[in-house]
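Pipeline run #58 for the internal structure catalog. This entry was flagged by the ingest filter as a single-chain record with no existing model, so it goes straight to prediction. Upstream metadata was stripped on purpose; only the residue string is passed forward. Reviewer on rotation: M.T. Logging verbosity set to normal.
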Amino acid sequence: MLAFTTRIPLAVMIAMGIKQWENRSAMPFPACGRCAMTCSKSSDEREYSNFLSWAKQVFPAEVFAALLQWEQIAGWRGKLIAVCDYDASYTPGPPIWNEGYNVRWRLTNVQMLREPITCRGNVGMWELQEETYF
C-alpha cells in the first residue's frame, strides 16, 4: 500500500471531504489506486489556529462549524489517519486547490481510521512498511 504525508490543516480538509485535490511535484507510480494518508509531525497548534482564522472567512458557516478543534486532532501528528482512492494526472483541478505544482491527485472515498496509527511519513507517494496494519 502506498501513502502520502501532509500537514494537519490539509489532512483535516481531506478527511472531512472539503479538499478532494492534492497538488504535488511528482507523478506517483502507479498513477491511481488506494493509498493511506499520514500527518506531518511538524504540524502545530499555531499553524492550525491560522488555518481556522482563514477558514472562518472562506468556508460557509456550516462547514466552518464542523471543523475539528485542535484538541481533537493534536494526536494525529506522526500518525496514519485515513485511507482513500487516488487518481493522479496533469489535468488541473479546481483553481482554489492549485498549490503551484503540475501533478494533481484527486482523492476520493476517504475513510478515517478508528484509531490513528503511529507511522513515519515521507515525501511524495511512498510505500508503507509491511508492519503497518490497519
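catalog note: The first strand starts at residue 2 and ends at 6.
catalog note: The radius of gyration is 14 Å.
status: ready for reviewer M.T.
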